[in-house]
Amino acid sequence: MSANAEDLGLNRLTLGGVICKHPRQSKSPAGVPHLHLTLEHRSMQSEAGLNRQCYTRIQVVASGEWTRPWSEQLTLGSAIKVTGFIQRHEDQHGMGKLVLHAQKIEQV
User: Fold this and answer.
1) What pTM did the predictor assign?
2) Could you give all domains of the chain from N- to C-terminal order, each with its CATH number?
3) Above 90 in pLDDT, residue 2?
4) Nearest 10 degrees: Cα torsion 24, 75, 97, 2
């Protein structure tokens, strides 16, 4: 079975959770505003006919002018649903992690 280029280019994630660290704002050297969040997700999922507790924390970055109202509304403990794409980021020591780049945020 071979995949076509469109299938290989799919990169979409929607995750709900609670903001577990204080949101932080920054700006790129070009002046683009960024909102940095840490999202904690907990749920029960079914796998192979069995229930499985799921837990994860993921860094979320939202970029652009559309993030300004969110930077004022979102606080520690806010429940949100984020949709976007994932990207690997490296810290100054070369350690990699997945980051969710938000394209849509909803409060739940």
Assistant:
1) 0.89
2) 5-107 (2.40.50.140)
3) no
4) -120
